[in-house]
Design a protein that fits this description.
Organism: Microbispora catharanthi
Structural class: alpha/beta
CATH architecture of the largest domain: 3-Layer(aba) Sandwich
GO molecular function: ATP binding; ATP hydrolysis activity
Largest sheet: 6 strands, mixed
Oligomer: single chain
Keywords: ATP-binding, Nucleotide-binding, Transport
CATH superfamily of the largest domain: P-loop containing nucleotide triphosphate hydrolases
Helix content: 25-40%
Pfam families: ABC_tran (PF00005)
Number of helices: 9
Protein name: ATP-binding cassette domain-containing protein
């Protein structure tokens, strides 16, 4: 399977602080990939390295088989919409399109103008007068009209109200399907990822905790609820992702090819949010355990 983004032991350091360290990741082509994790996990740094805005401090990264930003041809293959959906407040919508045409050799002016008309954006209006949702749609239009092979979006809808966010994600899904784009979308809102993503990567402290097609991940993870039990007593083929206990009851999220058939356990499906939180909780629990050992 072709990879659109491949990193090996990738690291980025700002002064004495590592923003990303020992990150190894392999993202396949042909998907809308959701990249999710807590604040400080390294998501934005990874995406900026992928589009050539930053140079690695350690390790290596390849995007579409080449070095990010290495050549004009490589730059033309990747579209990027940053977290604050950057547009120029003093420029009109039409001026943004003309600027895009001058900067991007693969620019599709017909598609850009058709999309602006369909969205109801007035070409003469300045970007600074647009609503947050309209600015986000303009930024997405600029990214799409570049005709990239890979579109990278870093929290593009985080500041939008629920309706504007829904419309933005719906248009993204339609555009990715129509233009056969590979997309990597970073978000801390799992509900957004559920709307559009068919592949998930959970990144915590620079490390990939789980990656795969969302349908496969959801069918191989289960919630077990039953009498209080030590995780080590579960079958060997069930990897415990997270565990919660009360005085009498245990609840586990496990990864396994098939759910347990022990009548002592109630087995239920997990949502994408359940799955993401379980892997983030697993990491938090491990940190607590290490801290306790250090103090002990």
């Amino acid at each position: 399977m072709t990879a659109v983004l491949r990193a090996q032991a990738l690291g980025k350091k700002y002064g004495r602080r590592w923003a990303l360290r020992e990150c190894t990741i392999d993202i396949p082509a042909g998907h809308i990939v959701g990249l999710v994790g807590p604040n400080g996990a390294g998501k934005s740094t990874l995406l900026k390295l992928a589009c050539g805005q930053l140079e690695p401090t350690a390790g290596g990264i390849a995007v579409l088989g080449g070095r990010p930003g290495g050549t004009p041809a490589q730059l033309a293959k990747v579209g990027f919409v940053a977290q604050d959906t950057p547009v120029y407040a003093s420029l009109t919508v039409a001026e943004h399109l003309r600027l895009g045409a001058r900067l991007n050799p693969r620019w599709d002016d017909g598609m850009a103008r058709e999309r602006i008309a369909r969205l109801g954006l007035v070409p003469a209006h300045r970007a600074g007068k647009l609503s947050g949702g309209q600015r986000a749609q303009l930024a997405l239009t600029l990214g799409l009209a570049k005709r990239p092979d890979l579109l990278i979006l870093d929290e593009p809808a985080a500041a939008l109200d629920p309706l504007a966010r829904h419309e933005f994600l719906q248009h993204l899904r339609e555009a990715a399907s129509e233009h056969k784009l590979s997309v990597v979308l970073s978000s801390h809102l799992v509900s957004d990822l559920e709307q559009v993503c068919d592949y998930l990567v959970v990144l915590v402290d620079s490390r990939v905790q789980i990656a795969g097609r969302t349908d496969h991940l959801l069918t191989t993870h289960h919630r077990l609820t039953g009498p209080r039990c030590d995780p080590g007593r579960l079958p060997a083929d069930q990897y415990v992702v997270s565990a919660r206990h009360t005085d009498r009851q245990s609840t586990f999220v496990v990864r396994a090819g098939a759910p347990t058939h022990d009548p002592a356990w109630t087995v239920s499906r997990v949502s994408l949010e359940d799955l993401v939180l379980a892997y983030m909780d697993q990491h938090t629990a491990e940190h607590r355990r290490v801290a306790q050992e250090v103090r002990g």
